[in-house]
Amino acid sequence: MSNNTKPQQQDKNFVFGKKNYKFMFIGLAVIALGFILMAGGGSDDPNEFNEAVYNFQRIRLAPTIVLIGFGIQVYAILVNPHKK
Prior knowledge:
Blueprint: H1 18-38, H2 56-78
């Protein structure tokens, strides 16, 4: 038996490639944008109702953008980084 002074090399293969991480960060940014668009619309006075809560941006656009972001996340997980 010979004792090698070299430490064992660990396998540095990642599950995801650079392409996957790029799409994941894009998806996170799209999700964050959707939640930012959903924010606001409230009233400072609790006795006064603000109709801006029900506008197109908060009811239709922002949730759609969040769902698109989740779709990008699913794509980022499923894409094969080694395929050209």
